[in-house]
């Protein structure tokens, strides 16, 4: 790069975006890369505090910040992401559709340890909507050695999955079983079903069938078999999840021959959550808090299953870091620390 005085720069071509900041009015690129300086631009540049500008002095081992940011974005982007145009040396990645963000914490760390490389993202497993901002890439210097970007590209390739991707939630046919003698015998009105129906439909799935069961192991197991026979791709069994002797839902699920992943999750609310599989069909035992708490372990775990991910006990255990809901008077999830 060659440094020249702004007053002598008419006809020169900018090699980077130049930001103008007027407090309370504007903050953004006033002149874009490639702009040819005109006489009328000189007062504007001086008002921006620019006494000098830099003109292109290409060297074979250096690349411009815009190209570097774009190559970084392309290296980390998997499915479900859209790259915008370079802006002030940055590339923003946005969601192509609604879904769940999957990000490699190890990959993000590996890239950011490279000198001059920046990758900033949302948290792993963040629920996103179409057009939501997901991540940004840039480099610190205006010009960066190409070998660093090549190393970044090779680093990204070393991971078996993309550093960043948005996975859509698949539409599941969900079988719903409401347990509890008080509901089964009609002594109280079921309030669990409407809550679960709303959540399931909000995730793009449908309730295949709704059954009520007494607090009886055999009856619960028969209800599970009925849901499987109907073609349920996911089964939710609500209630009866505590250590009370009358709460037999965990026993019914465990003794039906299901592969138990976990009974208990380090998440509050939702500690008595259960996850098991019969073949490829996930069965979730839902504690009472799911009925009245806005966000619980169920909201952290179910969307991941709906992307097609098969969860392990380790996946559930890792939720302990960030698994404490602050139970704010007005729930703002996912725009909070819960599940992060």
From TrEMBL:
Ranges of residues in domain MoaB/Mog: 175-307
Key words of the record: Magnesium, Metal-binding, Molybdenum, Molybdenum cofactor biosynthesis, Transferase
One annotated Gene Ontology cellular component of this protein: cytosol
GO biological process: Mo-molybdopterin cofactor biosynthetic process
A UniProt-annotated Pfam family: MoCF_biosynth
EC number: 2.10.1.1
Tagged with keyword Magnesium: yes
GO terms, molecular function: metal ion binding; molybdopterin molybdotransferase activity
SMART domains linked: MoCF_biosynth
Reactions performed catalytically: adenylyl-molybdopterin + molybdate = Mo-molybdopterin + AMP + H(+)
Catalytic EC class: transferase
Cofactor(s) listed in the protein's UniProt record: Mg(2+)
Pathways involved: Cofactor biosynthesis; molybdopterin biosynthesis
InterPro entries membership: MoaB/Mog-like_dom_sf (IPR036425), MoaB/Mog_dom (IPR001453), MoeA-like (IPR038987)
Family note: Belongs to the MoeA family.
Role this protein plays: Catalyzes the insertion of molybdate into adenylated molybdopterin with the concomitant release of AMP.
Protein name: Molybdopterin molybdenumtransferase
């Amino acid at each position: 790069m060659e440094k020249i005085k702004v007053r002598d720069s008419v006809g020169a071509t900018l090699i980077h975006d130049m930001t103008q900041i007027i407090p309370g009015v504007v903050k953004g690129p006033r002149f874009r890369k490639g702009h040819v300086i005109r006489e009328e631009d000189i007062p504007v540049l001086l008002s921006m505090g620019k006494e000098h500008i830099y003109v292109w002095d290409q060297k074979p081992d250096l690349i411009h910040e815009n190209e570097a940011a774009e190559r970084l974005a392309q290296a980390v982007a998997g499915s479900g992401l859209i790259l915008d145009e370079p802006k002030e040396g940055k590339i923003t990645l946005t969601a192509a559709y609604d879904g769940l963000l999957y990000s490699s914490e190890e990959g993000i760390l590996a890239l950011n340890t490279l000198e001059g490389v920046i990758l900033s993202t949302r948290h792993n497993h963040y629920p996103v909507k179409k057009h939501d901002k997901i991540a940004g890439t840039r480099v610190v210097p205006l010009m960066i050695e190409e070998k660093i970007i090549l190393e970044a590209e090779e680093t990204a390739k070393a991971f078996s999955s993309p550093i960043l991707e948005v996975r859509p939630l698949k539409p599941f046919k969900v079988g719903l079983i409401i347990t509890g003698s008080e509901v089964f015998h009609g002594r109280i009105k079921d309030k669990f079903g409407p809550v679960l129906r709303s959540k399931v439909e909000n995730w793009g799935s449908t309730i295949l069938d709704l059954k009520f069961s007494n607090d009886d192991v055999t009856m619960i197991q028969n209800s599970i078999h009925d849901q499987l026979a109907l073609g349920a791709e996911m089964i939710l069994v609500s209630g009866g999840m505590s250590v009370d002797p009358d709460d037999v839902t965990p026993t019914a699920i465990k003794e039906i021959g299901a592969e138990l992943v976990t009974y208990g999750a380090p998440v509050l609310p939702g500690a008595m959550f259960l996850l098991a599989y019969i073949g490829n069909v996930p069965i979730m035992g839902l504690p009472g808090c799911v009925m009245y708490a806005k966000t619980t372990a169920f909201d952290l775990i179910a969307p991941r299953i709906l992307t097609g991910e098969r969860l392990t006990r380790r996946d559930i255990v890792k939720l302990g870091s960030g698994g404490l809901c602050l139970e704010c008077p007005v729930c703002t999830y996912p725009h909070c620390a819960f599940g992060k």
